[in-house]
Design a protein that fits this description.
Radius of gyration: 22 Å
CATH superfamily of the largest domain: Methylthiotransferase, N-terminal domain
Mean pLDDT: 91
Number of helices: 13
Distance between the termini: 50 Å
Strand content: 15-25%
CATH architecture of the largest domain: 3-Layer(aba) Sandwich
Low-confidence stretches: none
CATH topology of the largest domain: Rossmann fold
CATH class of the largest domain: Alpha Beta
Length: about 450
C-alpha cells in the first residue's frame, strides 16, 4: 500500500479535552503517512477517541465500535484504533477486547506519545493493547495538531486532583500535570502564525494551573502572557473550578484586551448537602460570592455552568435549591445531566440512589427553567451592539454567516463569506432559543 494514499478517519466523543486528544492522534497518524478524511468507506485507519464520563456516552461509543465490524468485513485491510478515557478505566481493557475482537489497537489516555509505534505494529498485522497505569510528565507530542484552524484548543495541563465523588476523570487521566509556560506560549505563537485567531486554553481545572511547576507562576500570569501574543484576537479557557477562582483571575480577565468575558463555572448542584457528598469543596454561599465578584468587576460577563440532577440522596428540597441558584445567577447557558453511576467512584456505591423516572422528571423541569433564563438573557442583548468573530457560513443557512460574541453567544447574520476570521460589529435584532439574529454595522 502506498504511504501517500493511506486515509484516516478520527471520531471524537466527550469533552474538548477528548477532541483535542483526537486531533493529536490524527496528527500522529499523519506523521505515519495518513491523510485525514471523513469517508469511512475508504478509510485505512479509523480512530475512536472515547469518553466515559456518562453511561450514555459509553453506549454510543460501543454502538459505533460494533458498526465498524461490518465495515472491516467489507474492507479487511482496515485498521481500527480505540483510545482514551473509556479504555483507561481500571479493568476495562479485557472486557472491551472480549466484546470487540475486531479492534487492532487499544490505547489509554497516558499513551498518546506512543501512538505512532502502535500504528506501525498494527500495520504489521499485530493486535496491540497498551494502557499505562500511570501517566508520564506533561508531554509535548504534536503541539501543532490544530494548525490552520480559525479556532484552536491548547492543553495547559493534564489530569485532575479534585476527586469529585461522581467523576471518573482523575482515575483515567491521572493527577494534574502542568505544561511549561514557554511551551504553551510557543505553541500558541505557531498556531497564530498558521492563521489561528482564537485560542481556548484547556485543563480539567485551569484555575490550579502551575501549582506543580515549582515557579512563582499561576493561571493569571499565563493569561496575561497569552493576551500579549501578536495576531491573537481572542482567548478563552475551560474549565474553572469554583473553589480556585481568585479575585486576581477575575481582575486579569477584566483588564485583558483579548481575554473573553465568559466564565464556565460548573456548580453541579445548589444544595450544600449534595455539594458536600459530591466533594466539591465549596458551599452555595461561596459560589454565589464568586458570582457576585464577577458581576462587580465585569458586569456584562457571560456565565455558563454544568448541573447534575439525581445525585444519590438528592431530595426535592435539594433540587429546589439548584433551581434557586439558576434564578439567582442568570446563566446564559447550562449543560445539564442526569447523574450516571461510574464504576470505581465513591458515588456509585452510595445508598439512596434516585430512581430513573425521578431523575428524568427533574432534568426536564430543570431544562425548562434554564431555557427560559437563557432566552431572557438573549432578549436583553437585542438592540445592543457586540463584537463578533466571523466563523464562516452558517451550517443551517449557507447564505448567512455565523460567529460568536466574546460572551460565546452564537449569532447568525447576513454578510460576505470573505469576512471569515475577522471581527465585526453586529447589532442584535432577534433572540431565538439558542442563537441571536443580527446585522453587521461595520468591520472592526
Amino acid at each position: 500500500m502506498s504511504t501517500n494514499n493511506k486515509k484516516v478517519v478520527t471520531l471524537a466523543y466527550g469533552c474538548q479535552m477528548s477532541e483535542r486528544d483526537a486531533d493529536t492522534l490524527t496528527e500522529i497518524s499523519a506523521q505515519e503517512g495518513y491523510t485525514r478524511t471523513d469517508d469511512l468507506e475508504n478509510a485505512d485507519l479509523v480512530i475512536i477517541n472515547t469518553c466515559c464520563v456518562r453511561e450514555s456516552a459509553e453506549n454510543k461509543i460501543l454502538g459505533k465500535i460494533g458498526e465498524l465490524k461490518k465495515l472491516k468485513e467489507r474492507n479487511p485491510h482496515l485498521k481500527i484504533a480505540v483510545s482514551g478515557c473509556m479504555v483507561q478505566q481500571p479493568g476495562a481493557l479485557e472486557r472491551l477486547q472480549h466484546r470487540a475482537p475486531h479492534v487492532d489497537i487499544w490505547a489509554g489516555t497516558h499513551n498518546l506519545p506512543e501512538f505512532g509505534r502502535l500504528i506501525r505494529l498494527a500495520e504489521d498485522n499485530q493486535k496491540v493493547a497498551e494502557v499505562w497505569k500511570e501517566p508520564g510528565p506533561a508531554f509535548e507530542a504534536t503541539p501543532l495538531a490544530e494548525k490552520g484552524k480559525l479556532k484552536a484548543n491548547v492543553n495547559i495541563s493534564y489530569g485532575c486532583n479534585n476527586f469529585c465523588t461522581y467523576c471518573i476523570v482523575p482515575h483515567v487521566r491521572g493527577r494534574e500535570r502542568s505544561r511549561k509556560p514557554e511551551d504553551i506560549i510557543r505553541e500558541i505563537q505557531e498556531l497564530v502564525a498558521s492563521g489561528c485567531k482564537e485560542i481556548t486554553l484547556l485543563g480539567q481545572n485551569v484555575n490550579s494551573y502551575g501549582h506543580d511547576l515549582n515557579i512563582s507562576y499561576d493561571f493569571a500570569n499565563l493569561l496575561k502572557q497569552v493576551d500579549e501574543i501578536p495576531g491573537l484576537l481572542r482567548v478563552r479557557f475551560l474549565t474553572s473550578h469554583p473553589k480556585d477562582l481568585s479575585d486576581q483571575l477575575i481582575e486579569t480577565v477584566a483588564a485583558g484586551q483579548h481575554l473573553c468575558e465568559h466564565f464556565h463555572l460548573p456548580i453541579q448542584a445548589g444544595s450544600n448537602e449534595i455539594l458536600r457528598h459530591m466533594n466539591r469543596k465549596y458551599t452555595r454561599e461561596y459560589y454565589l460570592d464568586r458570582i457576585a465578584k464577577i458581576r462587580e468587576i465585569i458586569p456584562d460577563a457571560s456565565l455558563t455552568t454544568d448541573l447534575i440532577v439525581g445525585f444519590p440522596g438528592e431530595t426535592e428540597v435539594d433540587f429546589e435549591q439548584t433551581l434557586d441558584i439558576i434564578s439567582r445567577v442568570h446563566y446564559s447557558q447550562a449543560f445539564t445531566f442526569i447523574y450516571s453511576k461510574r464504576s470505581g467512584t465513591p458515588a456509585a456505591v452510595m445508598t439512596d440512589q434516585i430512581p430513573l423516572d425521578v431523575k428524568k422528571r427533574r432534568l426536564q423541569y430543570l431544562m425548562n427553567h434554564q431555557n427560559a433564563q437563557s432566552l431572557e438573557w438573549r432578549k436583553a442583548m437585542v438592540g445592543k451592539i457586540y463584537e463578533v468573530l466571523v466563523e464562516g457560513p452558517s451550517k443551517s443557512n449557507p447564505d448567512r454567516l455565523t460567529g460568536r460574541t466574546r460572551g460565546n453567544e452564537l449569532v447568525v447574520f447576513p454578510g460576505d463569506p470573505k469576512l471569515k476570521g475577522t471581527l465585526v460589529k453586529v447589532r442584535m435584532r432577534e433572540a431565538r432559543s439558542w442563537t441571536l439574529l443580527g446585522e453587521i454595522l461595520s468591520e472592526h
